[in-house]
Amino acid sequence: MLIGSYSPTLVIISLCVAILASYTALDLTGRIATAKGRAVHLWTAGGALAMGIGVWSMHFIGMLAFKLPMDLGYDLTITLLSLLTAILSCGFALWLVSQPRLPAWQLVFGALVMGAGISAMHYTGMAALRMQPGIDYDPTLFGTSLLIAVGASGAALWIAFRLRQHSPHVTLFRCGAAVIMGIAIVGMHYTGMAAARFPDGSFCGAVVSGLSGKGLDNLVLITTLAVLSIALLTSVLDARLEARTADLARSLTEANRELTQLALHDPLTGLPNRVLLADRIEQAMSNVQEQGGCFALMFIDLDGFKPVNDAFGHHMGDQLLREVAVRLREDLRCQDTLARIGGDEFVLLVRLAEPDDALGLAARQVGLIARSFRVTEHDLQISASVGIALYPGNGQTAQDLLMNADAAMYHAKGSGKNGYSFFDASMNSNARRQLQLLQDLRNALDQDQFSLYYQPKFDANNGRPVGAEALLRWEHPTRGMMLPDTFIDIAEKTGLIIPIGEWVLNEACRQMREWYAQGYTDWRIAVNLSALQFCHAGLVKSVAKALSTHRLPANSLTLEITETTAMNDADASMTVLQELSAMGVDLSIDDFGTGYSSLMYLKRLPANELKIDRGFVRDLEHDSDDAAIVSAIVALGQALGLRIVAEGVETGVQQDFLTKLGCDSLQGYLLGHPLPAARFMVDIHRAEQLATA
User: What pTM did the predictor assign?
Assistant: First the structure.
């Protein structure tokens, strides 16, 4: 027998190639597992080619490592056939592990097929030597090589199937598995080589016409490494591209989720917004129509929120709205919907067992809001007005229900706030009238429909005129002359009172400038400030601008604010009043005695005047309590060094009583009605003539 030998270098190279081929195969199974559509077939075909070349290259380099005491060559056709066998076997393996499941019987069958293919590749490659006489094989080692091929194939298939999904540390596991698989493949090959017996006198029939072994090992190695490297690099790059694509898809999914959240929810409170609420109402209506029952739609508007927002700033207002949302959700079930549809307006959609259940639920919501809120170390007190619309009964569409609940809410506000009201059909007409009034009010400034009437004030002692109070009138195009009490509430609620108030201030200063130029330099023009105006950040600038525009001395203007407004937030009021006082403007506490005042704060307020409410003046002839109150107010004002003005004087008895008490000036219908400027001056001239007569 001829004794062969091995090149240690090529043996090691063959082992490295086997390991690299095994790792490439494991990586490609991962690509196939995640691919979809045509990409599966492309990766399978490319993987079969790369893996087949790798396995065959290991086998061929192993054969080149084998040396006999003769020249060796390799038949090209048979060598290519062994390569084809390797590619087909690897293609079958990749197809098998790409299946969704790999049961035991299928694994055994696949191991037999792949083992047979690998063995066929090896022994076909050996046949490419075309030895004469033929190669004898040791039966034991031959059988062992077959068993190793089947066992290695089964292990490779199982490992590839288990490691095909991306998971933490999968690369490390694949490296370890590739080493084991490479050793198994090399073991099979060299066991098969060890089974070969070459009789003495044998010669290689392919040495003349076949491939020569000289330099072939380098060519095969370089080609194989190139193929495996390209396959592996392509797989890695594709995996990274897929990972980036997956990250992008996750980012887009998250972005879509966030956009959906923003589109359907209020960004401040996280509650459903008007769009989502409308959808929930439609669903609730469908459920009632299919299953029966009823639900209530409750429109919740916060009373007193705007003054908080104006006094403490939007940050505090936003935080208060969040706290309101949290509190309203305390009492809700999972099937209920609480939405914020704008500003300080919330809507509650609740499924009811009986329509009467809405009453208790609405009362609980009012009670929840009535409790004090603790916001950034401030105790804030607000209330809620709730309007209730029921389905079925109060509307056929989501829009109808919302509109009717809104109308009921306005009715609750008009009834004193801090309560609830069920919708009634008559409310719609009131709501429409209010809406039309609001539209007309928006146009009134632009179309010069406002005017000022002036009610004179007289010195209580000598009866001489000392100025006037400017009173707003609205000449409505269809309703005629309208007094402030018919539209001031809606102007306050919508914020229109701010531009209207600025117009009043400018017009009063303009008129006072005319009178000042006519010689009435000791007169004062009084202008009422609403609570919203007083809280508005631009009040001081507006007053300064009006005085500057009309070149009017500051002490010719008296600003009247109610006692309740001044005391609502005494510290904030103090700051505003001090700025106005520093400017030289006179300040009057209007309707004094109707609110609750801290004498400590009243003493500190930079006011110049107290104005006794007409309610006390009206009944002082018949009610000793009112007379006592008026006397106390006059005494208090005198003690504080304030001018005392009494309004609502309608009888001579009232005039005499107030004059004897020590009031400084009087106004009322007895002395003069509110009139336009021209007619006002006619009456003033008549009064002056009477005073001097």
Answer: 0.49
